[in-house]
Amino acid sequence: MRLAHLITHPVHYQAPLFRRIVTERDIELTVLYQSDISTRPHLDPGFGKQVQWDVPLLDGYAYRFLPSLGGTERLTFWRPLTYGVGRALTEGKFDALWISGYMRPSYWTAIAAAKRRGIRVLIRDDLHERGKQRRITRRAAKSIFFAAFRRIVDSFLAIGKLNREYYLKLGVKPDSIFLMPYAVDNKFFQSRAMEASRRREHFRSELGLEKGRPVILYVGKLYERKRPRDLFDAYQRLSSDQRTEPFPYLLFVGDGEQRRELETRAHSLGWNSIRFLGFKGQSELPAFYDLSDVFVMPSVEEPWGLVLNEAMNAGRAIIASDHVGSAADLVIDGVNGYSYGAGDVPLLTARLQQTLADPVRCRAMGEQSLKLINRWSFEEDVQGLKAALGLDSCTAQIATGT
Question: In angstroms, what CA-CA distances link 329 with 54, 225, 308?
Fold first, then answer.
């Protein structure tokens, strides 16, 4: 099966998945990129700074960059304005086209080109309804769009429960939906976390953290929809009088527009327990996950949240808002952590207290996280993809209620 995959640019999460897919004898994968922006230092608007990924993005699989009209430095609804996808599909003699997303004119052009050539179309997107405040007119327009769209797409690749529910609500037939979960390179993160554990106390000392004090960890962009302010407020509530420094540390790993505000607040409190450590690359993150006791994701609008997968690979307890897409699949209350109503700071505070009150139980929750994430991996991705392509007799369709 010759499979083309159309995506805007190389993504650090996707590259190892592509390398895994090409090991399958019955799939010949070629990735069609619209931009090479992520292969060099570039401005990330969310982090508010230039970033460069420290892991290989183009090794180990076949790819080509499509030609473009104008620059490829901006990723917007219209740009990059690439062309030649039809020629690429013809030259590659592809049997199927898998597209990451669907809300770009260039993707619509690619779908039309594929259908004209009798090529199957697979769509994988990360949307769900939680946290969305859409006008009635916009919801109606989406329903009208999908009434036609679902008829020309052969298969939808659901990344999890909420994403599947989203497709069903828009009228997609259950037998057209296949589970291809959002996963990270579990082997990479588990091996790096194990390496980090051997120098954990040295790393703690490097950061100036006292031994024996638990660590609450946030990893991500510091801006509004991620709600780092909610976690800051909940942490402050851990102080009985709002003046005495809480016993746990709170580490913010990441950057963004709210960093200065939060740093100013931390400075005004006079506490040494809140640290802002800036942007870290993929190879650096496992040491922070290993150092932490509980990982918190307080977003109010989060399609998935792959850093949650990463933290689970380090065997850590998880607290996530119910608007985080991954929480519906990967967080089991009281087992490997807790979910809470997005924006509910008092409940987030209570969840932190519950999780950190008993160190033994906290570690047990982390062990459960590791067990859960081992069943949410690239292996499940490959099974789902092969089922959608008709290459696997054992279907990976998501049965109702599973």
Answer: 29, 21, 11
Q: CA-based angle 272:278:281, to the nearest 5?
A: 135
The answer to whether 2-184+377-388 and 186-373 have equal CATH topology is: yes
Helix (H) or strand (E) holding 34: none
Q: Which tokens sit at 144?
A: 């009208």
pLDDT score, position 132:
65
Beta carbons of 142 and 102 less than 8 angstroms apart: no
Sequence letter at residue 179: L
Cα 99 to Cα 112: distance, rounded to the nearest angstrom: 12
Contact assessment for residue 112 and residue 64, using Cβ atoms and an 8 Å cutoff? no
pLDDT tier at 140 (50, 70, 90 boundaries)?
A: confident
DSSP secondary structure letter of residue 38: G
Q: What is the pLDDT of residues 219-274, one digit of tens each?
A: 999 999 999 999 999 999 999 888 899 999 999 999 999 999 999 999 999 999 99
Are 5 and 98 a contacting pair, CB within 8 Å? yes
Alpha helices in 118-227 (DSSP H): 136-152, 161-169, 186-197, 200-206
> Which CATH architecture describes the domain 186-373?
3-Layer(aba) Sandwich (3.40)
- Res 49 pLDDT > 70: no
Over the Cα atoms of the chain, what is R_g? 22
Domain ranges of the chain: 2-184+377-388, 186-373
User: Model's pTM, two decimal places?
Assistant: 0.91
Cis, bond preceding 80 (omega within 30 deg of 0): yes
Residue 399 confidence (pLDDT) above 60: no
Report in angstroms the alpha-carbon separations of 270 from 205, 212, 259, 381, 393. 21, 21, 17, 47, 62
Percent of the chain with pLDDT over 90: 80
What class, spelled out in words, does domain 2-184+377-388 have in CATH?
A: alpha beta
